Amino acid sequence: MTKIALGVSSSISIYKACEIVRRFQEKKFKVQVIMTKNATQFISPLLFSALSGQEVVVDPFEKALSKTIAHVSLAQEISLLCVAPATANIIGKFSSGVADDFLSTFFQTVKCPVLIAPAMNEAMYFHHPTQTNIQRLKAMGVKFVEPEEGYLACQEEGWGRLAAPEKIVEEGLKLIKISKSLKGKSVLITAGPTREYLDPVRFVSNRSSGKMGYELAAEGLSRGAEVILVSGPTQIMPPVDAELRKVQTAEEMEKEVQACFPRVDVVIMAAAVSDFRFPNVSSQKIKKRELKSVIEFVSTPDILGKLSQKKAGQVLVGFAAETDNILKNAKEKMREKHLDLMVANDVKQRDIGFDSDYNRVSIIDSHGKVLKTEKMSKREISQIIFDKIEGLVGK
Ligand SMILES: Cc1cc2nc3c(=O)[nH]c(=O)nc-3n(C[C@H](O)[C@H](O)[C@H](O)COP(=O)(O)O)c2cc1C
After folding, report:
1. Which domain holds residue 15?
2. Which residue's CA is the nearest one to ligand 1's atom 2?
């Protein structure tokens, strides 16, 4: 029997959590309920114990539980953490890394998908810190079931009512399915800029931060894929479970990509590979007086172009960083390189794209159909890209 954890915090809508337990059970899931201490002011843990047939966890320091349930071991057993109802407080704790009770500590240890169903009055829901916390969690890959508009417990009409239990369970089931959707598949992702050296201290590079590629890697892992991340120099943390291969130059990147290509199912070239390099790299720092005022460049290898010639069933996804005629240029590049998907972004916009946590992209498929996204976190963009990729793998 698959096990899920249901986190329950102290919202007035807590009574609906009983139905959520029931509905997960109807779908043949074992439910481990975790309550915040404040939630026990509303409902006794006994009710959830009786419903779920499992001892409810509230306090990480409870002696009786310490032998059998630790936040780490429970995290390895579950396929989903669903928090419903989620208070503004627990959302804030998750978002900022506070771990002062079992539920918030547990959140930090889980690797399975997390689904949050907020419930609060309208003022709390639209309070700036709450919205910021929700955005931050979405950017980490956490999914939300948005609250509904309607009559609230505070005797007002407005937004903030807990979504219907059947909707929450349906979203939970979808997430469990997605978390296994690429099991057994390998995804190669390139990320970041490359550096083309003139001598040991000088190089030509670009503004890429690597964030888009790293978020794609995190999303691929969350769907059960094995992820190889070939990364140019970045200042950000790679996802821990990715197989990281660090490179500096376009030539090094090509070598790694070519070596991995035969054993992968999907290649996503999100790196901003330098188009040019210096023909000769000096092994010693060139003296200022010896530097020429005009420096010659030669082309770097066309990694994606070469892969498309060797393609044996792999799904090839390219990125086009453009400043003008974005769709036209991206479609041309897609045709030239025989890509299955092309993700075009406008790198002229300062608030998205290079070095930003956000992006707004156009995803073009092989029939020329274009999907334009809103401005959203790079993780959410990655989810849309992977939804498209899943439809292509194995075809
Ligand atoms: C009667 C009552 C109803 C409440 N309903 C909500 C609610 O729906 N949503 C919410 O975010 N907070 C609500 N609160 C406030 C939370 O209980 C409070 O912020 C608490 O500190 C949250 O603790 P927890 O997140 O650890 O459960 C309510 C408080 C009371 C007394």
Report:
1. 2-178
2. 12
